[in-house]
Amino acid sequence: TVWATPSVVRPWLPLRPADSHKGSTGHVLICGGSAGMTGAVAIAALAALRGGAGLVTAALRPGMPFAEKPLEVMATEWPALSGRLEAYRAIVAGPGMGTAPDGRELLAGLLRESGAPLVLDADALNLLAAEPALLRGHPASLILTPHPGEMARLTGLSVAAVQADRLETARRYAAEWNAVVVLKGARTITALPTGESYINSTGNPGMATAGMGDALSGLIAALLAQGLVPWRAAAAAVFLHGLAGDNAAGRLGPAGILASDVIGEFPVALKAL
Amino acid sequence: TVWATPSVVRPWLPLRPADSHKGSTGHVLICGGSAGMTGAVAIAALAALRGGAGLVTAALRPGMPFAEKPLEVMATEWPALSGRLEAYRAIVAGPGMGTAPDGRELLAGLLRESGAPLVLDADALNLLAAEPALLRGHPASLILTPHPGEMARLTGLSVAAVQADRLETARRYAAEWNAVVVLKGARTITALPTGESYINSTGNPGMATAGMGDALSGLIAALLAQGLVPWRAAAAAVFLHGLAGDNAAGRLGPAGILASDVIGEFPVALKAL
Amino acid sequence: TVWATPSVVRPWLPLRPADSHKGSTGHVLICGGSAGMTGAVAIAALAALRGGAGLVTAALRPGMPFAEKPLEVMATEWPALSGRLEAYRAIVAGPGMGTAPDGRELLAGLLRESGAPLVLDADALNLLAAEPALLRGHPASLILTPHPGEMARLTGLSVAAVQADRLETARRYAAEWNAVVVLKGARTITALPTGESYINSTGNPGMATAGMGDALSGLIAALLAQGLVPWRAAAAAVFLHGLAGDNAAGRLGPAGILASDVIGEFPVALKAL
Amino acid sequence: TVWATPSVVRPWLPLRPADSHKGSTGHVLICGGSAGMTGAVAIAALAALRGGAGLVTAALRPGMPFAEKPLEVMATEWPALSGRLEAYRAIVAGPGMGTAPDGRELLAGLLRESGAPLVLDADALNLLAAEPALLRGHPASLILTPHPGEMARLTGLSVAAVQADRLETARRYAAEWNAVVVLKGARTITALPTGESYINSTGNPGMATAGMGDALSGLIAALLAQGLVPWRAAAAAVFLHGLAGDNAAGRLGPAGILASDVIGEFPVALKAL
User: Fold this and answer.
1) B14 lies within 8 A of chain A by CB
2) Do A208 and B271 touch (CB under 8 A)?
3) CA C138, C144, C149, C155 torsion: positive or negative?
4) In whole numbers, what is the pLDDT of chain B averaged over residues?
5) Residue pair B223/B50 in contact by the 8 Å Cβ criterion
6) Percentage of chain D surpassing pLDDT 70?
7) B-contacting chains (≥3 CB pairs under 8 Å)
């Protein structure tokens, strides 16, 4: 187990060669956005751009208005994805996705078809909890980012049991699921299927607010799209996300920070590191 | 009667423990948003987030577009609320709600079903003025936030009579309604059913503009959601709202401040206090 | 003819008494917003709020989506206005209104029914040019804010003739129309029906861009709503608008300023004056 | 071949006479915006305004919602353009346009009807690649702004061949197409049909992200609308766009810059030059 500090994370960060173009810096897909929950997709999409991804496409449930769409984000609908995943270098599924049958179909399709690493959060985790068989036999690397409640649903443990030994729980299921597991909360754990793990050293309780998880999943995807291996993308994103949150709290105060504020600090955190 | 000053309010403020998560910092529901009035809900929702609430759901009248929806806010529609209020630790009703029969049904349902404290503002107060019987027999704590015109409608007094003895009027009806009454205006009064009352020491005439009341109701709800008892949530929110307004006026000038500007100052006011 | 300078304008500005409330600071109505032109209404509405108005309602052509609606602005549709104008202390007509028959009906209704001062700009001026009889017999004070092209259409003169003697043209038609005439352009003229006139001393060519006229009309309405007489509201708004534009140009540069930037400077300009 | 430096570009920049008005500073039309791609039009439109254009109209495919529309931008739909292009002093086609038959018709119509210079980017280039005959016989000056992949499709060369001699490739096709060719990438080339060419000295790899090309096309159009000849508009816009990007990277960091950030720096870059 390693304590994630600047000197650990810094060497992993993507370099941006002089001849970078928006193709080379990677295309991220964010899948989610049921009725009333489209903001979660917008947050993850913005986070991916602020994390340095070259292109971001947001895929929403069909027919959703998308009032919060950032200028720089492209939008599409779930059914348009099937058979067209090759363009994406990292995929996030879950933010505001809902757990209705069409969301289940979307998730199953991504797990079946995607060769690019998949970051699964929020409702994608709830769908997996309801149908663990989905976790078997996918071609892609997986990064699961549960908070303790989601981890409890995924594992059948109580929240108290998850929290009683966060490190061991994360490591055990990372191995069982053959996935990188990011167990969120104070001192977020990033556990690898190999048994290695990282404990995060950044972040603050002001980040206990809506959309912070969406921001993290977008940032992980941005680092994946820029070429980091999944476990480094996960542990580095956790570190940077917390550092950006610490910067936002330093500027604004310990409560009342928005996920947007933290996302806006990503470039500065990347630079400062 | 107590003069609300920093030393009075400071000890009430929520602490944010290191293991906070968006569940523990509280889920606020904002109910309102008829045609052309959805911005009021957006303001109250943003205010709740900037006041430190963990999650905010905005409930609008069915079929309303919600162009102003902040990224971090979830949206739903009124009829989806019935029987599903347990998740919320504080509820605001009124901003842009309108006074049509479906709004009346919404309000009656909230008063009947909610166990969480209810902040009633704007059109919720107008509905109560038209049907005072709604105020009887509800299970939840109530916080009413009338401006003098709304107070006059609620009490049957003239505005002049309300203003002639603001303190006494607020105290009398706080007792009669068994509710915390926040009588807005210069030197806002917070009166408790017990007869205690607080006179606010912050705020400025630049705050006499659209949406400032919505911002206050969202901030009260944020403090409720973080565990303050209703009268402290009300009096502290009034103080912080005025302090944030004073900061905005100091930065921008004595006129032309927007409610958004004041909301943006909430975290700094919380920190400075 | 008076050169509008800070010492001339300063004494006119509204004071904001300590007991101001959003009713006392005035309700502004902005009428306009045909397809693709709703942004003009949003700009005028924001300008009215940033100029210190207490409440602003935007009235759009029926069925228009209003993606740009600011949080603090209420929205309605044209046909809902008839017989309901008493609430407004100042009315702007024209921004993005179009010149179709329903716009003509709206304008005719406002001229017939409004007792509050009317600021007429953009398409309202084009409609008046097509049907000058509309200018006769209205109960309200009028402020017309043509640029030279609109002035030419209104008067039947060529643009060159308008510009050849801007002061005399504005004064002549202010008397003929019994209206305050704001002839925009470098050194904007404000002419009164009495023959008095003001020449503005602020502003810069960076303000030659979309929406600056909408911003001016909203600011005039804000000052009217706060109690200024029409000619003072017009001349003071012209001065403040130019001062805000000068501040924006000082901060950003001589080109590429947006109307939004200038509106954001209104409170600071009001304070600095 | 000239190295584009401040001393080369500075003398080309538009002066803004004291009597400028939004008519004299030029009206830009941006054509694009298919489903999910309307943000590209919004970026180009904002870029045109931030580059000093007086008016900007965005033309989208019929029926598209336009949640991202900036306040200062007017909107219309493609079919409304035919026979009505005289008002525009510069036209951009391509951002988010798609390559469906109606987009092809739009492009063909612009090439046939426009007397104003046309900036062709993105999907407009893809349509030209599929139907090179469109490039023949148009009345207007053309500026093509391909990235290496688009240049490869336009020329039938491989990307490697394009990149192997960027300068020569750009010059050859500028002559062949009788168009200004802006071959984007590190050290963007601006090549004239005459054989002259400029190599850009600004920009950084943080600009390898979504919407940067849209921002450039809007800025070229802004300079065209203010009276620059096409090759100067192109080379100067490339220089300013890179300078603005360098300023944004200096402020925010080398990765995670948004196109919006860079556009916001246009006025400062124009001033600093």
Assistant:
1) yes
2) no
3) positive
4) 96
5) no
6) 100
7) A, C
State the greatest distance between any 2 C-alpha atoms of chain C, in Å, as a whole number.
Answer: 50
- The residue of chain B with its CA nearest to that of C17 is B205
CA–CA dist A42, A61 (Å, integer)? 13
pLDDT tens for C203-233 read 999 999 999 999 999 999 999 999 999 999 9
**Option in A68, A96, A205 nearest B69 (CB):** A68
Q: Which of B65, B72, B74 sits opposite A65 (nearest CB)?
A: B65
Residues 249-268 of B with CB under 8 A from C: 252-260
Q: What is the CA radius of gyration of chain B?
A: 17
Residues of B in contact with A256 (CB under 8 A): 49-52, 266-267, 270
CB A262 within 8 A of CB A240: no
Contact of B49 with chain C, judged by CB distance below 8 Å, is answered with no
> Distance (Å) from the C-alpha of residue C190 to the closest C-alpha of chain B?
24
CA proximity to D198, closest of D166, D241, D162: D166
Mean pLDDT of the region B70-92: 95
Contacts of B52 (CB under 8 A, 6+ apart): A206, A209, A255, A256, B14, B16, B25, B222, B223, B226, B267, B270
ipTM above 0.95, yes or no: yes
Nearest to B273 by CA among B224, B227, B223, B209: B223
DSSP states along A30-77: EEE--TT-HHHHHHHHHHHHHTT-SEEEEEE-TT---TT--TT-EEEE
Residue B227 DSSP one-character state: T
Mean pLDDT of B105-127: 97
CA distance B166 to chain A (A): 32
Predicted pLDDT of residue A137: 82
Mutate to test the interface with C, among D20, D61, D66, D71 (most CBs of C within 10 A): D71
pLDDT tens-digit series, residues B41-66: 999 999 999 999 999 999 999 999 99
Q: What is the mean pLDDT of residues D201-209?
A: 96
pLDDT digits (tens, 9 = 90+) for C126-178: 999 999 999 988 899 999 999 999 999 999 999 999 999 999 999 999 999 99
pLDDT at B123: 97
Mean pLDDT of chain C: 96
Predicted structure pTM score: 0.97
Q: Which long-range contacts (CB under 8 A, 24 or more apart) does C103-110 make?
A: C103/C34, C103/C61, C103/C127, C104/C131, C106/C31, C106/C78, C106/C81, C107/C134, C108/C134, C109/C81, C109/C82, C110/C31, C110/C81, C110/C85
